[in-house]
């Protein structure tokens, strides 16, 4: 598909993407790179990082992978520092790292609940905190917490916290540091680990009948939204603003 954006919309920018080795995160890396950005990926698995970096460099995108777990503050700090060392700056932080599995509330251990909050919510805040340096932040959540979702109480709680963190940072850091903080809440997106783990095929094909366009969203859709929100095309929002007290 041809991009609706000019190829230099992120020219000269450096983007650090957590969970950028696969799925939506990798598509964001690819599209950011195709639009001029240099990419740093943070992820837990070396092999996933290596193949993502190889795929990006093969199409001429500057890319580097740093191993790390967003649950560990020291990893977040080290990866942010390594990205600075490698590219001399970070313009864009994308928080995409997330953990997920289906479990009914009564079968889910409190530690299972905590594990997903640690990855999604605390991990997002920690990365924002370590990377605070101007530029733009984009955090990817979901739509399941906007209503309720079967067997995803932990994920719903985690994504609700991600959205709350996005709104509060947009207010505080937009005002104080001129940092644009945005979120994207994707619905079901085809061809992702999230979909294959959480929604068996028969559910997906039935659900399609109720979808406005009779089809699943695509990773491309999210990457294009990400491109818009992190580019200079997107500028400050008013609806969150309120007096400081
Ligand atoms: C029940 C589980 C479980 C499962 C782990 N736990 N997997 N409970 N069912 N399938 C519990 C464990 O019992 C344990 O609690 C606690 O969680 C920690 O488990 P660990 O195995 O030690 O955790 P870890 O190895 O760190 O694994 C993290 C993980 C894992 C989140 C559990 O599944 C993971 O990292 N998955 C890959 C990431 C992923 O799926 N990404 C896709 C995101 S998609 P106890 O009490 O036993 O100690 C996405 C889209 C959302 O975000 C929206 C979709 C519509």
TrEMBL record:
GO terms for biological process: fatty acid catabolic process. InterPro entries: DECR2-like (IPR045017), NAD(P)-bd_dom_sf (IPR036291), SDR_fam (IPR002347). It catalyses: a (2E,4E)-dienoyl-CoA + NADPH + H(+) = a 4,5-saturated-(3E)-enoyl-CoA + NADP(+); a (2E,4Z)-dienoyl-CoA + NADPH + H(+) = a 4,5-saturated-(3E)-enoyl-CoA + NADP(+). Its EC number is 1.3.1.124. Keywords: NADP, Oxidoreductase. GO terms for molecular function: 2,4-dienoyl-CoA reductase (NADPH) activity. GO terms for cellular component: peroxisome. It is an enzyme of class 1 (oxidoreductase). It holds the Pfam family adh_short_C2. This is 2,4-dienoyl-CoA reductase [(3E)-enoyl-CoA-producing]. It comes from Kalanchoe fedtschenkoi (Lavender scallops).
């Amino acid at each position: 598909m041809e991009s609706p954006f000019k190829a230099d919309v992120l020219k000269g920018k450096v983007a650090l993407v957590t969970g950028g080795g696969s799925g939506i995160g990798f598509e964001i890396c690819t599209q950011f790179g195709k639009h001029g950005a240099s990419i740093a990926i943070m992820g837990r698995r070396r092999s996933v990082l290596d193949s993502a970096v190889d795929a990006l460099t093969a199409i001429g995108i500057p890319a580097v992978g740093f191993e790390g777990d967003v649950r560990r503050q020291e990893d977040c700090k080290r990866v942010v520092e390594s990205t600075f060392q490698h590219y001399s700056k970070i313009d864009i932080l994308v928080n995409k790292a997330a953990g997920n599995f289906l479990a009914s509330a009564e079968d889910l251990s409190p530690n299972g609940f905590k594990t997903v909050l640690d990855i999604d919510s605390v991990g997002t805040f920690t990365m924002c905190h370590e990377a605070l340096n101007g530029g733009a932040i984009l955090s990817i959540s979901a739509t399941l917490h906007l209503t309720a979702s079967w067997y995803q109480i932990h994920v719903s709680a985690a994504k609700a916290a991600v959205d709350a963190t996005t709104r509060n940072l947009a207010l505080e850091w937009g005002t104080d540091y001129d940092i644009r903080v945005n979120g994207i809440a994707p619905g079901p997106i085809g061809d992702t680990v999230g979909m294959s783990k959480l929604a068996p095929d028969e559910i997906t094909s039935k659900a399609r009948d109720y979808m406005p366009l009779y089809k699943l969203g695509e990773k491309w859709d999210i990457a294009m939204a990400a491109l818009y929100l992190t580019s200079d095309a997107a500028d400050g929002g008013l609806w969150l603003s309120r007096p400081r007290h």
